[in-house]
Design a protein that fits this description.
By secondary structure, the protein is α+β, with helices and mostly antiparallel strands. The protein is about 20% helix and about 30% strand. The N and C termini lie far apart (about 80 Å).
Length: about 100
């Protein structure tokens, strides 16, 4: 008797779920693309820092991410970014190389 009630309840849930679904509209392909106009933000990372070569987190403060850049002269620039506010720590550390 109890099993019969569970089966009927399960069938009712499946029927409700099947009738509540509706097909999503087809995506037109417009929008998106991941392009962001950096000039609209005050906290942007300057291009003269070089190419991004890595990103690390700090286990004692996982809110901040450290971005590692390599300049054309092979020096390393280190910049911190707050993941919650996207605030860039604008005092980069530079490690020179010889």
């Amino acid at each position: 008797m109890r099993t019969r009630g569970l089966v009927l309840a399960g069938l009712a849930v499946v029927c409700l779920a099947a009738t509540a679904c509706e097909k999503l509209p087809q995506w037109s392909g417009e929008g998106g693309g991941g392009q962001i106009d950096a000039s609209k933000f005050s906290d942007t990372i300057p291009l003269d820092y070089g190419n991004l070569i890595g990103a690390t987190t700090n286990s004692s403060n996982p809110r901040w991410v450290t971005l590692w850049f390599e300049r054309p002269d092979k020096s390393i620039v280190i910049v911190g970014v707050d993941q919650h506010t996207w605030r860039v720590w604008m005092q980069p550390r530079v490690i020179g190389r010889k």
